[in-house]
């Protein structure tokens, strides 16, 4: 690590933040954080125990009453200030993110902006929480509705977008008047600690936000989900873990938001603008080194343009520089850990053995967890690569003939997070958008993420929406009062 990088890492708090104080873990243990480009250990952070988790919940529960009654304008101003400070600290946050999970600095800077937008958006939503008042149909009672905060919320965030996935949850939680416990992924605790320093600086009251990072998420999560003071769980991660958490959360009937895995189809019709489609596919595939639930997992190309498209995508992939995300000109960083390299290698090897052709890349290299941008041609829907989330820089290409055929193939997965389609025919675009079984569709673009849009999936990709006008509803419940109208 360079001395300037060391300085930024050293400046970040390494302890837990509970009830307004930085604290060691109750057993004083720490765990290591590694740079995936070099495998160098860059920091050691406090390793939260189940007791620490319960202390965080106690702090959040104690602060809930007064935070829930804070004037919306006050909550809005605090979030707005957090937005401004996040922008001011863009460089430091971006560097931490790149060091602990590998994405190129330019992408990390982009994530900081994306993350900050959730703070701005929800600072604007905090003052627009609405109710209603109307006469019941019988004329004998009035109906009054109001929205109230659901209460202490447990926010579990992933390593692939260490900042944006947290602000996408914390922004609406705080705007709605909920207190929170944030548990970042064990691979990326530093970005979140630096963001907590911002939340502390803006002056959030003690106990409103609490931070617990741990090397044993299951042990720390279990007592929280069994404690009746907790009212909400929001999780971003795999479908497999989401299902386990849902089962645990069922005892207390927790409000849930589940943003889970995907198997995104990207469809290129023969009436597409091919340059636009190649750009969109490269973005949808390689953003975050392919380590995103939104990543294009299956790329379907209509026969008439299949060759032109795959050639253009190949030259695009071969022009990219792979390396440590802090280096000038690097387009694609490392994967996050050895298990990720193993999985991507297994999927590519399986496709090759079953007869697919690797036309670009195909291999991993060191010293970190690097994998070349790869294109696999001639994939069949029965291959493992078609049915598992690749989570790496590997484009799997399929050829199709008919519109209905590709819609059926796109929908033939248990997942339903996002799809992308490229066509210059507006009627076709709208028709296919309606037929795709996903929560989101990118039309002639390879990115759907926007703080103002409701992000979320259907089927095994989960439920609940983050961002957009819908995002704050996940942290509110509707209370209705039936008012005797006889004397009104
Ligand atoms: O892995 C899923 C994170 C989604 C990031 C985004 O908002 O695009």
TrEMBL record:
Gene3D superfamilies: Aldehyde Dehydrogenase, Chain A, domain 1, Aldehyde Dehydrogenase, Chain A, domain 2. SUPFAM superfamilies: ALDH-like (SSF53720). One of its GO terms (biological process) is gamma-aminobutyric acid catabolic process. One of its GO terms (molecular function) is succinate-semialdehyde dehydrogenase (NAD+) activity. The active site is at residue 259. The keyword Isomerase does not apply. Keywords: Oxidoreductase. The keyword Oxidoreductase applies. InterPro entries: Ald_DH/histidinol_DH (IPR016161), Ald_DH_C (IPR016163), Ald_DH_CS_GLU (IPR029510), Ald_DH_N (IPR016162), Aldehyde_DH_dom (IPR015590), Aldehyde_DH_Superfamily (IPR050740). PROSITE patterns: ALDEHYDE_DEHYDR_GLU (PS00687). Residues 22-480 form the Aldehyde dehydrogenase domain. This is Succinate-semialdehyde dehydrogenase / glutarate-semialdehyde dehydrogenase. Belongs to the aldehyde dehydrogenase family.
């Amino acid at each position: 690590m360079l001395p300037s990088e060391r300085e930024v890492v050293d400046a970040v708090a390494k302890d837990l933040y509970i009830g307004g104080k930085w604290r060691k873990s109750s057993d004083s243990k720490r765990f290591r954080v590694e740079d995936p480009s070099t495998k160098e250990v860059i920091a050691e952070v406090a390793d939260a125990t189940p007791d620490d988790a319960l202390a965080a919940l106690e702090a959040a529960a104690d602060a809930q009453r007064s935070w829930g009654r804070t004037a919306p304008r006050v909550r809005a101003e605090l979030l707005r200030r957090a937005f401004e400070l996040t922008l001011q600290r863009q460089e430091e946050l971006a560097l931490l993110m790149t060091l602990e999970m590998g994405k190129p600095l330019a992408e990390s800077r982009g994530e900081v902006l994306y993350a900050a937008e959730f703070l701005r958006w929800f600072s604007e939503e905090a003052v627009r929480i609405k109710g209603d008042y109307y006469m019941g149909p019988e004329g004998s009672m009035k109906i009054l509705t109001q929205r109230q905060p659901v209460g202490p919320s447990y926010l579990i965030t992933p390593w692939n977008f260490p900042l944006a996935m947290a602000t996408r949850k914390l922004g609406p939680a705080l705007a709605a008047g909920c207190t929170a416990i944030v548990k970042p992924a064990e691979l990326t605790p530093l970005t979140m600690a630096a963001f907590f320093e911002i939340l502390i600086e803006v002056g959030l009251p003690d106990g409103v936000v609490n931070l617990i990072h741990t090397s044993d998420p299951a042990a720390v999560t279990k007592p929280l989900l069994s404690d009746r003071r907790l009212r909400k769980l929001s999780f971003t991660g795999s479908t497999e873990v989401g299902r386990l958490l849902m089962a645990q959360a069922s005892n207390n009937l927790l409000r849930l938001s589940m943003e889970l895995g995907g198997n995104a189809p990207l469809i290129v019709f023969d009436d597409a603008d091919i340059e636009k489609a190649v750009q969109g596919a490269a973005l949808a595939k390689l953003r975050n080194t392919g380590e995103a639930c939104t990543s294009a997992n299956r790329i379907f190309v209509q026969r008439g343009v299949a060759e032109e498209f795959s050639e253009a995508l190949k030259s695009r992939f071969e022009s990219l520089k792979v390396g440590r995300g802090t280096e000038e000109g690097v387009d694609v960083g490392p994967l996050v850990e050895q298990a990720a390299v193993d999985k991507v290698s297994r999927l590519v090897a399986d496709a090759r053995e079953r007869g697919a052709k690797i036309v670009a890349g195909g291999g991993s290299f060191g010293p970190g967890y690097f994998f070349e941008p790869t294109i696999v041609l001639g994939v069949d829907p029965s291959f493992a690569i078609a049915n598992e989330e690749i989570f790496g820089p590997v484009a799997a290409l399929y050829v199709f003939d008919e519109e209905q055929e590709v819609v059926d193939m796109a929908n033939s997965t248990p997942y339903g997070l996002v799809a992308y389609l490229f066509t210059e025919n507006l009627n076709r675009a709208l028709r296919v958008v309606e037929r795709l079984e996903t929560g989101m569709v990118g039309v002639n673009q390879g990115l759907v993420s926007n703080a103002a849009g409701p992000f979320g999936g259907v089927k095994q990709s989960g439920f609940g929406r983050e961002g957009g006008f819908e995002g704050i509803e996940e942290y509110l419940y509707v209370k209705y009062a039936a008012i005797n109208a006889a004397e009104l």
